[in-house]
Design goal:
Layout lengths: L4 H14 L2 H7 L9 E17 L6 E16 L2 E8 L3 H14 L5 H29 L12
Pfam family, one: PhnG
GO molecular function, one term: lyase activity
Protein name: Phosphonate C-P lyase system protein PhnG
């Protein structure tokens, strides 16, 4: 993680959002929801319009819609937020709770070891598997030069 607190938070929020819901639930089992948790924004599911640009530089166009779920919690004085792809309300709850806990300097090392690192390794493994699958289907084109 980066030493800048804002960049580090952006990195762990990204990791929590990209985690598989079952992986996050398993990693967060040791961190039960406390009694003093306040749901500032219970999980809400909605749609986002994805926008794109042809070649990354052309005019914007509506690419399509994506379902997202957001959630905000307060644990003590810390406020955690999460936006996750899909309609997984439990994923959003756990990601927001983990974000709140990770803002506590005393709990961050333990959460980094038990939650973030396993999630990072799982995400890396999924990306490598997708790269291998794509590489296996790569087609090499070549031409035979005719002697004209």
């Amino acid at each position: 993680m980066d030493s800048s607190p804002h960049l580090a938070r952006a990195q762990w929020m990204s990791l929590l959002a990209q985690a598989e819901p079952a992986e996050l639930a398993a990693a967060m089992e040791a961190f039960a929801l406390p009694a003093d948790i306040t749901w500032l924004r219970p999980p809400q599911t909605g749609l986002y319009m994805l926008r794109g640009r042809v070649g990354g530089t052309g005019p914007q166009f509506n690419l399509g819609e994506i379902t997202v779920t957001r959630c905000s919690v307060q644990v003590g004085t810390r406020i955690g937020h999460a936006w996750v792809r899909g309609g997984h309300t439990r994923h959003a709850e756990l990601a927001a709770y983990a974000d709140a806990l990770l803002q506590d300097n005393e709990q961050r090392p333990r959460l980094s070891e038990r939650v973030l690192e396993p999630l990072r390794l799982a995400l890396q493994a999924r990306r490598e598997a997708a790269s291998r699958k794509a590489a296996a289907s790569k087609v090499e084109f070549f031409t035979v030069v005719r002697g004209e």
